[in-house]
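Incident log entry.

Two folding requests arrived from the same account within the same minute. Monitoring flagged them as a possible duplicate submission, but the sequences differ. Recording both here for audit purposes.

Request one:
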Amino acid sequence: MASDDEYLSELTDIESEYDESPANGKKAGKAKASTWKIRMSLKPARATTYSAQALYDQIHGGDVNLEPPYQRDVVWPETKQIMVIDSIFRNFYIPPVIFSVQVHDDGSETKTCIDGKQRLTSIWKCVSNVQSFIPKLADVKLYFKDTKTSGRGPKHEIMPERYRKVFANKQIVCVEYHEISEDDEREVFQRVQLGMALTPAEKLQVTSTPRAAFVRSMLGEYLREDGPLCPPNLNWKTDRGGDFRCLGHSIHMMELASSASRKPPQSDFKQLEKWLSFKDEVPESFQKSVKEAFKIFASLVSSDNHGTVFKKYKKVSPLEFIFVGLLVYLNKDKATKRELADGIGLMFDHVREEHTDVRMNNRVQKTMVNFVTDWTPGTKK
């Protein structure tokens, strides 16, 4: 088991600076002890409270950002969201919400949610009537307010006015960091999540390197909200950080293919994690080629003529997403869009002929690598 000092060293950047030629042993001990310094510490956070109504208003008004790149998706089921509302009503403990606060030149503030997205989303859903509330020991579903504009539509049991006021005035404990960098936000998020069940793919998003930043920029362009490679435009599984992982994996394969003499080696999660951790800058020429490849990929998906290939099967698997990107990257300068669409369709057929399930494993990946590197534009089968 690590000693206290070893454990502390993992969590804080501590250095020892001391004079190596002290007058005597006693002074040496004092000098060494007195010159320990904690490096790169954050400014102390401020503890405060906001009413549930105030937090709802800030979220609704766009003053609270619930979607920083490192955040996980909304993953709580309805039962857990209802439980949080019940806890607020009945004064049970809920952990503090952690914000990063930025003050603008005009004096206004915006907050980024570092931790507490699921709790804030539950509050927003309740007050917005998106989510009903079921009181403890009762079977009736209560809605926060009556939003019907006419007599039509299903009838809802409305929460009594006095309880709406009670909930609106409930105080939520918050912790605020002021003027910290996004890298610091990620570090806070990562440390808070040490005991939480983040998926491996979600953990990748916390990485703060030039490579991870490039993947995030591509994610923002193609896979956020109504992006061209998001469902329903492209039917594939993107939740729990899967979009970041697959996008990063595809870009990693592109880099491997660029330096390979013939076939790029296979890449697994550990190799992707290692690749993302490198601190060197992503070459501009490589960035340009990757952007061109995904621009073509997106145009194929949105095309009436070529997009049908992505609807050939019920869903595009995560591994197929990775290798569509690679196929386009390797052939974008020598194939027409029609030829690329045909090649993608053949790849989908081939992998399903070879394997019952298109899973993210070495065996299926080897089949995909072989197909992509052997395929030439114009091949019909």
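Request two (distinct sequence, not a duplicate):
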Amino acid sequence: MSILSEFLTMLGVQDDFCIQLMGEITAGRILFGDKDIEPILGVTALESVGILVDPANKTLRRLPAIPLK
């Protein structure tokens, strides 16, 4: 746990978040890093809203919908 993370926790900052991406909403967790760390959006958060990272084309794609029976 970084010093920044400990400080934010002492202030009562919650590490849960809600994200809206490409019209979909999901919940997840925020990991606080040091001040000089670039923010990133993890694959888990993207996949939970049905978004697939395509590294070959450097694009985001919607996962195909699976019909319910």
